[in-house]
Amino acid sequence: MVIKETEPWLLWPDTTSFGINTGKISEVFEGVSDFTLAMRLKILSIEPIKRTVFAKLPNYCGIDVESNNTPLLILKLIKAKEEVSRYISCNYEIDTEFNWLIYRYSISKRIVEVLVNDIIVIEYKLEDDEELTSGVEPHIIFGAGNFPKNGFNLNYCSYDIDYLMISKSYKQLLEIIKIKNERSLDNTIVGLYDFEKHTEYKVYDLSENCNFIHKII
Questions:
Q1: Which of 5, 6, 12 is nearest to 214 (CA)?
Q2: What is the C-alpha separation between 116 and 30, in angstroms, rounded?
Q3: Which of 217, 214, 216 is nearest to 16 (CA)?
Q4: Among 16, 9, 8, 54, which residue's Cα sits nearest to residue 137?
Q5: What is the CATH number of the domain that holds 30?
Q6: What is the DSSP letter of 68?
Q7: What residues contact residue 25 under an 8 Å CB cut-off, 6+ apart?
Q8: Which of 9, 27, 42, 206 sits most deeply, having the most CB atoms within 10 A of its CB?
């Protein structure tokens, strides 16, 4: 399924799933447990220079691709009781084919990582006085962002996506591929999408948690 420029999609099940969703997906990515977000996608946009693959709001965390399709990790952290932002870039260029893009966190190691396929291209170790932030009614936008550093520009990004998995565990690529190929589930998976089961405005959650993804209208 293609997420088109100017037509982002939204994961905000507490608001859009009418109370039938489970798994507390809104708590993922806030440092209370390990987590993994794995996407299989092909980036289509070449402009603007910064394009947002996904953004977790309102606390401004996510992944952009910069010029030459190099990933940029945005983190908002609490450091010594103050909010700080980290913008962590790399030189790894994502090609124009389908690739795995993985965002994951190990609570024991206190490390946030971004992988392209099985290569760690960004690794950030939280300092002793740093913690991941939590947000009020957190939600994720796919294909657009709203980061302060970019002047709250939307930074639309068009890409073809055929798989998305969100888990409350730290997963390796081989585990993720096995889940995809065997359509297997474990109790850490709170959102699973193959983008085949969808309507014009909704992508169904194969994890049975009813954490649907909706087109922003």
A1: 12
A2: 22
A3: 214
A4: 16
A5: 2.60.120.200
A6: G
A7: 11, 13, 166, 190, 191, 209, 211
A8: 9
State the Cα–Cα distance between residues 127 and 212, nearest whole angstrom.
Answer: 35
* High-pLDDT (> 90) share of the chain, %: 65
Of 171 and 5, the structure prediction assigns the larger pLDDT to 171
Peptide bond into 148 cis (omega under 30): no
What pairs with residue 124 in β-bridges?
Answer: 112
What is the reported pTM?
A: 0.93
Look at the block and give the residue holding tokens 């994720």: 140
Tell me which residue range forms the domain holding 73.
2-215
Cα–Cα distance for residue pair 139/110, rounded to 1 Å: 23
| Residues making up the chain, counted from first to last | 217
Q: Which amino acid is at 106?
A: S
Could you tell me if residue 127 is left (phi over 0), alpha (psi between -120 and 50 degrees) or otherwise beta? beta
The whole-angstrom separation of Cα 151 and Cα 112 is 25
Query: Count of domains in the chain?
Result: 1
